[in-house]
């Protein structure tokens, strides 16, 4: 029985981070400027707090100026909008990330549309979505999770994406849709599948590249995978793990890993796959945003 190559997202993320740290040092030496990242968290969701802490930690490791705004869950929408306006006007801040999901009394799209597109390091502003879909990636901010997935796919396939069939499972604005745009740009033949897709297993069986981003634990089974396919698991699901003791949990992806690893050519683990790459790409976007706002030349893409 063959076993898939494990795509080590954590290791790739570390090398991306090292390169960003180097470039940030050079930027500071020549201009005295540091990329500035502001993260806004509304409410006390424990998972969000973990991610946000991780982003802050990585930002300081990269040598960035990093600020965090923790707001209570019942903060009025108007106050969040005012904070975003202030960050838009703050010359020390080059990237603004408003952690999603927001509490239900806040209109998410209203907040995201207020962020200046050049400071929108999440790539969620309609301007950036438009630039990505028209193929103007060099002027856009590309959403971090799909950008990180693309880096991992290119590594696994040694750049040979053109003409390959790709199935993206999930149609969110955060992952599914931008992932499909990026793969189309790389000349893949792209299918976007979702909860209404008929006979999903047979759709997935046709794919050279599978991106699972649905948020359903271990939904994609081993016998759905075409032998040798590249499997990218975006899901991060915390499920009960009674075998580890009462009340314990563990993280699983949207792919049944053990089964799929027996069939795939390459596969990302959870944790240690896409998650660390998301954070690394956020740092890359923040550095890019800072350079653009300082009217400096565009650097070579890191990967
Ligand atoms: N505006 C906004 N932008 C985001 O990019 C955004 C967001 N909101 N809301 C929540 C999701 C989720 N997300 C993750 C980032 C890193 C890991 C990560 O590093 N995960 C580790 C494990 C972490 C753990 O142990 O829980 C791993 O997969 O190895 C996970 C999830 C960013 N998100």
UniProtKB/TrEMBL annotation:
This is Bifunctional protein FolD. PANTHER family: C-1-TETRAHYDROFOLATE SYNTHASE, CYTOPLASMIC, C-1-TETRAHYDROFOLATE SYNTHASE, CYTOPLASMIC-RELATED. One of its GO terms (molecular function) is methenyltetrahydrofolate cyclohydrolase activity. It comes from the Bacteria. HAMAP family: THF_DHG_CYH (MF_01576). The lineage of its organism: Bacteria, Pseudomonadati, Pseudomonadota, Alphaproteobacteria, Hyphomicrobiales. Its EC number is 1.5.1.5, 3.5.4.9. Catalyzes the oxidation of 5,10-methylenetetrahydrofolate to 5,10-methenyltetrahydrofolate and then the hydrolysis of 5,10-methenyltetrahydrofolate to 10-formyltetrahydrofolate. The gene is folD. Residues 7-122 form the Tetrahydrofolate dehydrogenase/cyclohydrolase catalytic domain. NADP(+) binds at residues 170-172, 236. Pathway: One-carbon metabolism; tetrahydrofolate interconversion. It catalyses: (6R)-5,10-methylene-5,6,7,8-tetrahydrofolate + NADP(+) = (6R)-5,10-methenyltetrahydrofolate + NADPH; (6R)-5,10-methenyltetrahydrofolate + H2O = (6R)-10-formyltetrahydrofolate + H(+). GO terms for cellular component: cytosol. Residues 143-293 form the Tetrahydrofolate dehydrogenase/cyclohydrolase NAD(P)-binding domain. NCBIfam families: PRK10792.1, PRK14186.1, PRK14188.1. GO terms for biological process: L-histidine biosynthetic process; methionine biosynthetic process; purine nucleotide biosynthetic process; tetrahydrofolate interconversion. Keywords: Amino-acid biosynthesis, Histidine biosynthesis, Hydrolase, Methionine biosynthesis, Multifunctional enzyme, NADP, One-carbon metabolism, Oxidoreductase, Purine biosynthesis.
